[in-house]
Amino acid sequence: MPAGPSLKAGGYLSGRQVNPGAGIVVQLNITLEQPEKKLALFGSADRNLRLIRDTFGIQVIGRDDEIRLLGEREQVGKAAAVLDQLQRALRRQDWLSVEEVGKAIGRAADDGRLRSADELDVFHAKGGPIRPKTAGQRKYIDAILHHDLTFCIGPAGTGKTYLAVAASASFLKQGQTKRIVLVRPAVEAGERLGFLPGDMQAKVNPYLRPLFDALHDMIDIEQVKRFMVNDVIEVIPLAFMRGRTLNDSIIILDEAQNTTASQMLMFLTRLGHDSKMIVTGDTTQIDLPNDVRSGLIDAMEKLSGIRGIGMVELEQADIVRHALVQNIVDAYERNGDEPAAKRRRKDRE
Q1: Which of 70, 101, 111, 237 is the most core-located residue (most Cβ within 10 A)?
Q2: 3-state class of 230 per DSSP?
């Protein structure tokens, strides 16, 4: 059934073909994740179910702790995608607004959802589509598509940041998000903002430069400037995230290995409705003081196994920069990069 990854998310969907001869009519039974929120999902007087029925021209029957969909497989798939989005929303809230339901139905009706890594609709400035080049990168993009929160760790050159920005640009282009927020901790290589010359903008620019570089590969520089003026794109230090809640946004935290546990918690709790977070880092390049544990490692340990969170680890085989980069990484691995290896052992104890 070509209904997209949302049909698989969470493992609570099951279905069977009703008319094998025709090959286009299916019945899909959806077991409710939270039966206690059935009224919120169905809507007053089953309003939400009726909207789904009328939009996609299928039968929608809600009984007990199950919803049954019957109709053309493509339309059933779209309806299932809507219900999947609504159930995900109800994990973090107790009611669905008319606007939320309408937006979910609209996205599915327009068939604008990214379903696989091959559907990234973004191109490099030099021409040609940006696509994952390794199995690990494909797994990474699929995790972003399937989860509201994705962690990705790996060595330099594996495309952690670049692909996250590419996916975000694709979401923005297809109208699936209203804003991209790119975030970095302003602590690297032992430096602190106060020791750098210039005003605040001059101080933070060196830390944010890699994010601008990735953006400029995918979006015209002048367009990036316009987006930034209109707050469609923000590139900010992590400290500037405190006190905010970001809805309808894709939020990327880069170099997350240099966050503390409290900073990471602060960042993760900024996640708002209809938003996704992508957290990237390299646990062998931690620039925190020796007695401070990396918030990235801490979060991945504490949040492991939680539904709705994807975790991907890229390896040397996923390095896609100049061929020498992989040789350099391999050489350091063979000879034992003592500071990095020591730090990784310490933080995993």
Answers
A1: 101
A2: coil
Residue type present at position 177: T
Which run of H or of E encompasses 66?
A: strand 66-72
pTM above 0.70, yes or no: no
- 311 closest CA partner among 118, 117, 140, 133: 140
pLDDT in tens, the chain (349 residues): 333 333 332 333 334 434 443 446 788 888 888 889 999 999 888 889 988 988 888 999 988 888 999 988 888 888 888 898 888 888 888 888 887 888 778 777 665 455 555 556 555 555 567 778 888 998 999 899 889 999 999 998 899 999 999 888 888 877 778 899 999 887 643 445 555 455 555 555 666 777 788 888 888 888 888 888 888 999 888 988 999 999 999 999 999 999 999 999 999 999 999 899 999 999 999 988 889 999 999 999 999 989 889 999 999 888 887 767 777 877 887 776 544 444 443 444 4
Q: What angle (nearest 5°) sits at the alpha carbon of residue 345, between those of residues 343 and 349?
A: 120
Q: Are 3 and 77 in contact (CB under 8 A)?
A: yes
**Is-contact 143 201, C-beta < 8 A?**
no
